[in-house]
């Protein structure tokens, strides 16, 4: 059974940093691209960032480019999102999502339950 | 960047057919995927590659895509289908590879 478990969310002040993690199990992690998608309270889904199976291809939404860094550790079956210079508008539930292929993502077949990030003073 | 447009809401009576549209420039040339999200839950893939269904998704869910509009059709709507629905494409022409529509709230009357 595929499982994606996010952690690392919490309440953080504007300008501070946070690192999210996603622990994957139930599939061969290093065969698949992985992405982060967020959802602000009461809003729709917003793509944040994605990384290919071997970390050779990485992309970011304009809203987080230069502030967030995605990475993965295939030996630990884990995906990460380092979030720096956080803003109030980064407040959201952050989902880890598994792609159906290793390079180009196309779509997501599994999602985690999300970890909540609240940026507030 | 590529933009997907969905109606904010669609309402349908139980047993009827719901159609949720997703508009985009020449979207018929892309593969469209649909997710269902119920309150407090993570999104679930219900249709991929325009019209294919993952295992476990009822045949009542179907999709089509042509021209500038993709459509998710839910036949014989049930109360349990009430949810938000999002369309999504992979846009290889830009850095913003993953694009979501704004979402449609399906209300079962």
Unreliable stretches of chain A (pLDDT < 50, length at least 5) are none
Order of helices and strands of chain B: EEEEEEEEE
Q: Could you tell me how far the N terminus lies from the C terminus of chain B, measured between alpha carbons in angstroms? A: 36 Å
Rg estimate of chain B, integer Å: 13 Å
**Helix/strand order of chain A, N-terminal first:** EEEEEEEEEEE
Shape of chain A: globular
Apparent shape of chain B: globular
Mean of all residue-level pLDDT scores of chain A = 96
The N- and C-terminal alpha carbons of chain A lie at a distance of 40 Å
Number of strands of chain B: 9
Share of β-strand residues of chain A: over 45%
Report the biggest beta sheet of chain B as strand number plus sense, adding barrel if it closes. Answer: 6 strands, mixed
Based on DSSP secondary structure assignment, what is the total number of beta strands of chain A? 11
